[in-house]
Known about the structure:
317 residues, 2 domains, 14 helices, 11 strands, globular
Amino acid sequence: MLETWLTKSLGIELPIIGAPMGGRAGGRLAGEVSKAGGLGMLGAARYATPEWIAEEVATARAAGGDVGIGLMTWSLDDDATLLDAALEYEPKLISLSFGDPAPYVARIHDAGIPVLAQVNTIDDLRVAERAGVDIIVAQGGEAGGHTGRVATLPLLQEILESTSLPVLAAGGVSTGRGLAAVLAAGGEGVLVGTILLASPETIGPDYARTRVLAAGSADTVYTPVFDQARHQPWPERWFGRALVNDFTDKFHGGGVVDDVIVDAYDPADPNVGVVYAGQAAGMVTSERAAGDVIRAMSAQAEQLLSALGAKVRNNGR
Length: 317
């Protein structure tokens, strides 16, 4: 049994949270992750609506699992409607990432809900600490979707050495080996996303699952071109890690004007549409139910940590 601060505080069985992936993590995925013993999160991206949140929360709970909701802080600064909707459905956890969560934390706490913040640098950590968040996620540059530039292992070590808050890791964690490594380092759990992208419970175009299955770990690029193509006003410090395709081959790093990129983008075309995925893509080799992925990860981590404990004890004799 992998009992940590995270499992005890959230009342879950496994120290695994399904990442709130915009456009991929809906109610079915979140529900199955939670049903397996972790906590699934909805990815309420900028284009989500209160109606979408209501439908997906209901779907997750019908699957037998509780749910968390992930929001983009920089987007709330323009319109906090999605936070209003999230609070209405009393999720087990709310994540506020990519910006200063300070204006929103007290309101979430007043509703009795803990707040998680993903950070990409020590400066981000200090902002999150001052805001009063409850959980820190060290999100490394290996992660899929929008992320920072520091790799997971250096960032995790730096964050663990620099805060008394409970810390999770995200970015490149795809097996029980990764989970065991994070727990052994002093983390309380992990946020996983890419390893779930071929699961049948994901939302989004069917080609997204196919392309992840065909990709290797070197087949990603850290790029702003998909934000430019879709008029997504992400702050410039965060690019998105996505699978390479014809669109990135043509436009990434090319200095092309936005109008050309917008006209060339077609989300229905598998060779052009965005598939955000991390460097763990090479570990996604078959279409597996999300619950099976989560349970297998936990079982392997428990076995490895047990073996490590026995090895340390034996070597100490």
